[in-house]
């Protein structure tokens, strides 16, 4: 009973923090706005009528509704999605160091995006960096899974193949960037690789929301099987879990989620690595609670990092992927040193 109350309190506090920090995130920037003013604009736009009978500048409404609001929501959705993929990858590999990029999806996606930027018009056709990232990220995941599945499948083999493929695509991406002749292409490629929430649009929100919602529902439905899988493949099979099908489902779901997110934001690291660790420290390894906790904390983490960055650097756009790496790496090393819990225990 006490654990249930603690879990409910955590969910309530996390949800309230999402609303609070999301509101603060819309207020900060090159133009500071009032939180009360923001909510009035948002409510009026949602209900498509001037409920408060207040007039404001069109420029203010554009900043709130067209620029900052979709950015805040995109940050929440992408943070939640990356955390969910981190849980799935760690369950698949039974490795606490696994992340959404353990399959090399990020490196493949980076190559696809940079290829579209640098060489998009060379072969007689053009495609956006987002499309290139999604296609190459998906193909990379299937390639890694195919190579890992030949013969006897093992988590160690999956990780090693993922590292090898990741190194290959990282080399290709570096080659494309260093040989780029157009300075604008080079700047665009480097900025995209670093990961950013800038340029978020309402048209991007709905597809990501639907994909994330489906991912959460499917993962939550399988939480018992994920719990059993953590005990080992032999134990899982003896308890009636179809391990092969579950692996395929995890890879497909992780690939699709990561591909969609990376295609919009670029490569944002450490969210899917750090947040599952924090969540396990708070609620344990039972995926029934772990899934919901990680989704909420992942969204809260990325939203907080983006808000803090824009507050400290109001007149400069700093890629969010750079900030998550700078903050996430020391935090993760500190957690490893403390070793306050056992993975899967």
- CATH level-3 fold name: ABC transporter involved in vitamin B12 uptake, BtuC
The CATH superfamily appears as ABC transporter involved in vitamin B12 uptake, BtuC
Low-confidence stretches: none
Percentage beta strand: under 5%
Determine the oligomeric state from the structure: single chain
Form type:
globular
Q: Please identify, by name, the CATH architecture.
A: Orthogonal Bundle
Distance between the termini: 21 Å
Describe this structure in words.
This protein has 345 residues and is mostly helical. It has a single domain (16-336), classed as ABC transporter involved in vitamin B12 uptake, BtuC. Helix content is 75%, strand content 0%. It has helices spanning 2-27, 35-47, 58-93, 105-118, 129-149, 155-178, 183-194, 202-221, 223-229, 233-238, 243-265, 271-283, 287-312, 320-338. Helix 4 runs antiparallel to helix 7 (183-194) and helix 4 (105-118) runs parallel beside helix 11 (243-265). The two termini are 21 Å apart.
């Amino acid at each position: 009973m006490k654990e249930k109350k603690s879990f409910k309190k955590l969910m309530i506090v996390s949800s309230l923090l999402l609303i609070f920090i999301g509101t603060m995130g819309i207020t900060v920037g090159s133009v500071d706005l009032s939180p009360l003013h923001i909510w009035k604009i948002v409510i009026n736009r949602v209900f498509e009528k001037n409920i408060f009978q207040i007039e404001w500048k069109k420029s203010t409404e554009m900043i709130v509704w067209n620029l900052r609001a979709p950015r805040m929501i995109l940050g929440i959705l992408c943070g939640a999605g990356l955390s969910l993929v981190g849980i799935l990858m760690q369950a698949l590999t039974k490795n606490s160091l696994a992340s959404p990029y353990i399959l090399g999806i990020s490196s493949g996606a980076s190559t696809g995006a940079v290829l579209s930027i640098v060489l998009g018009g060379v072969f007689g056709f053009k495609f956006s960096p987002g499309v290139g990232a999604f296609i190459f990220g998906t193909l990379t995941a299937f390639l890694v899974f195919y190579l890992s599945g030949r013969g006897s499948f093992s988590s160690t083999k999956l990780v090693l193949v993922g590292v090898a493929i990741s190194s290959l695509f990282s080399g290709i991406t570096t080659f494309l960037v260093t040989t780029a002749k157009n300075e604008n292409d080079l700047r665009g490629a480097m900025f995209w690789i670093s990961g950013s929430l800038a340029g978020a649009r309402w048209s991007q929100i709905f597809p990501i929301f639907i994909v994330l919602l489906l991912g959460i529902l499917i993962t939550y439905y399988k939480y018992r099987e994920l719990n059993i899988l953590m005990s080992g493949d032999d134990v899982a099979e003896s308890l009636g879990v179809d391990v092969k099908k579950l692996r395929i489902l995890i890879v497909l779901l992780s690939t699709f989620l990561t591909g969609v997110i990376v295609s919009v934001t670029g490569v944002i690291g450490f969210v899917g690595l750090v947040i599952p660790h924090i969540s396990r420290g708070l609620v344990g390894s039972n995926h029934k609670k772990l899934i919901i906790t990680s989704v909420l904390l992942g969204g809260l983490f990325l939203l907080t990092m983006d808000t803090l960055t824009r507050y400290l650097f109001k007149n400069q756009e700093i890629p969010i992927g750079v900030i998550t790496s700078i903050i996430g790496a020391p935090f993760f090393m500190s957690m490893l040193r403390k070793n306050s819990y056992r993975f899967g225990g």
